[in-house]
Specification:
about 270 residues, alpha/beta, Spore Coat Polysaccharide Biosynthesis Protein SpsA, Chain A, nine-stranded mixed sheet, binds 1-O-phosphono-alpha-D-glucopyranose
Length: about 270
């Protein structure tokens, strides 16, 4: 049995950068070619051996629940036709995984969204995947890389990549020391620092393994950047108290939280199908 068996998908954000398409449609349903971002995320979690998929949603996100369900009318419509194969991947996920949902009532930040998910997670280590960080790897995926490290180290682990120093204000930035090829011990973390204030240019991307003590830390974490409760601040506390590792993941990330990154991901998948 894999030691990480549940993944939390914070999916309550509004996706205002994509308006008007996100006016009545969840941003997690935006497609890279013909598959929604959230499905790529769930597939990545499944490839890491995870079978429980837990979503923190909000108002206007019902399409997510419908996507990870069976549509009997549609099944009947495509049965026996060549289109049926297009449903294969999603059918497999619906058959093999368990899905649970809770709602974040107010938008109070990623840390608050993760704390809202406590009711679905309980007292176990868990993965977190932000679907708008779209990652392509040659192996089973970034979460599988983190899960393997968790099996060895049994502590919180974040995926990182180097970003241009001018872009630190878009990310959580770690302060740490490299203890093995690509592996860092984290001393502290800062949410979206201006370039002059950043402890470096190693940026956290939307893949985390968190130990469950993070919930108590989050409860005691005051609002930070943008007056929101930040997972970066809670991880900074955890790093100072115990052990947090960062892993320079193998693979390539597209920032599908903005239109340019989203178009690049579409071009990449379309030309590499
Ligand atoms: C969030 C986190 C940030 C992280 C980023 C990765 O920011 O707060 O620390 O670096 O995801 O994509 P957001 O992009 O949601 O503003």
């Amino acid at each position: 049995m894999p030691s990480i068996s549940i993944c939390l998908f914070p999916a309550a954000g509004y996706g205002t950068r994509f308006l008007p398409v996100t006016k009545a449609m969840p941003k997690e349903m935006l497609p890279v070619v013909n598959k929604p971002l959230i499905q790529y995320g769930v597939e990545e979690a499944a490839r890491a051996g995870i079978s429980d998929m837990a979503f923190v949603t909000g108002r206007g996100k019902r399409a997510l629940e419908d996507h990870f369900d069976i549509s009997y009318e549609l099944e009947r419509q495509v049965a026996g036709s060549e289109r049926e194969s297009l449903l294969e991947d999603i059918r497999r996920l619906v058959r093999d995984c368990r899905f649970s949902y809770t709602r974040q009532i107010e938008a109070r930040g990623l840390g608050h969204a993760i704390l809202t998910g406590e009711t679905l997670i309980g007292d176990q280590a868990f993965a977190v995947l932000l679907a708008d960080d779209f990652c392509v790897t040659e192996d089973a995926g970034v979460l599988a890389q983190l899960a393997a490290l968790y099996d060895e180290h049994r502590c919180s682990i974040v995926a990182i990549e180097e970003v241009p120093p001018a872009e630190t204000s878009s990310y959580g930035i770690i302060d740490g020391e490299e203890i093995g090829p690509g592996l860092y011990r984290v001393f502290d973390m800062v949410e979206k620092p201006e370039p002059g204030e950043a402890p470096g240019n190693l940026a956290v991307i939307g893949r985390y393994i968190l130990t469950p003590d993070i919930f108590d830390i989050l409860r005691d974490t005051a609002p930070g950047r943008n007056n929101e409760i930040q997972i970066t601040d809670a991880l900074g506390t955890q790093a100072q108290e115990g052990k947090v590792l960062a892993w320079r993941f193998r693979g390539r990330r597209f920032d599908c939280g903005n239109v340019a990154g989203f178009m690049a991901a579409n071009n990449f998948i379309w030309t590499n199908l």
